[in-house]
């Protein structure tokens, strides 16, 4: 195209065979200089009397002008939101019927600041076009809705769980939505964001760069790169911070920085994509479960991006569905990565619960340790809604345990503790609180039982432990348990209940062992009984 070209001269050149022929149903890239380029389409006579639509897909960057027989032009662009007939994902020229003999259609692709992508042309009846347009709009809307919904859900989890991994995923997915929204024109039709007109190139390029940045920061935490591939963490994080710098350079308006950013962006994008692919493969091979979710969702999208890039060079002209596939694959990736995030959250919760169990359980007997039992018992005592419920506390101390340890060794003592803990657990209700208080001492808190019922439980525990017939020495001495009982009174705390139950247990020790006794508020309970507590418990 030259500066002296006019629509009439372009049509004359077409009739003289100067233009290079092409198949309009296949993707074709039309090189453009700073003046644009001319394209002529010769429709057949079939359907010339009915209303038809000439569509250009995918919607090219910049504007396209269609000239009629009187050299009057109609100009459409992806960001044009004023047309009566909108082409969702493509440019659509409405052609009235009754044209008689079809004339060549002259199109002028105006110059654009971006690389010209390949397009194909389709001339069809208005009804067929509206049906296909409605199908595309429904498909694209569903895909974008899935991506936005997954992103917003992740943002909610980022706030609730205070996990920045979900925030990086949100940023990555929303940037990808913007990229596809600009490339397909969805931001303009049907969303009608006309205020973006003229800046879609900058917005789209910035969104691409930021999506890679968020993807790098996301994979760093999602795939636990620090654990599985520490050598790759620094370059991955560096990529995450390098892309925003390139975006800032492009937005400065300083020609030198803008040119440098345009020079750097494509090589960094290519190297960044390869780095993320390598990182996911390495971490997955070394045991990162989430890496396989990332690969399952991201690799197909990477393949589609490579195929689309190949199309820009003139390859694969028949695969005109790649752009739509990128939208659908974005929704697929959003779902897969959301499942990966859910799996990650469940895994972290399971690990946290496992650590909590280990922290709350006595390592030897596998019942509650003193700290965990005290917390649970305090919570039970301070339940405001059930402040009048009956609660009993049993303080248990094994008899002759020191002798057992001295004569048979600590291994035998440990086996005896494990066996006794198992017996106590089996005799008590699952809702009763049983814990190891320390050494050979156990505590149990029973709820909704009166003193008589609690004494029956304590007596049963004494008999059950004695029936284990765990020998202490070479004589007939057997391991048994002394139990003190305290019922909750007005104003009781856990400490006061334990103190009274301990005193009742001490009374049992001084009165023959191997039975239970309830605390009694009587001075005579300890009258004339002030010797030191026996060392041989």
From TrEMBL:
Pfam families xref list: 7TMR-DISM_7TM, GGDEF
GGDEF domain residues: 389-521
Keywords from the UniProt entry: Membrane, Transmembrane, Transmembrane helix
Entry EC no(s): 2.7.7.65
Membrane-spanning intervals of the chain: 136-159, 166-189, 201-219, 231-249, 264-284, 291-309, 321-342
Gene3D superfamilies, sorted: 3.30.70.270
InterPro entries: 7TMR_DISM_rcpt_extracell_dom1 (IPR011623), Diguanylate_Cyclase (IPR050469), GGDEF_dom (IPR000160), Nucleotide_cyclase (IPR029787), Rev_trsase/Diguanyl_cyclase (IPR043128)
Catalytic activity: 2 GTP = 3',3'-c-di-GMP + 2 diphosphate
Name under which the protein is recorded: diguanylate cyclase
Species for this entry: Dyella acidisoli
Classification of source organism: Bacteria, Pseudomonadati, Pseudomonadota, Gammaproteobacteria, Lysobacterales
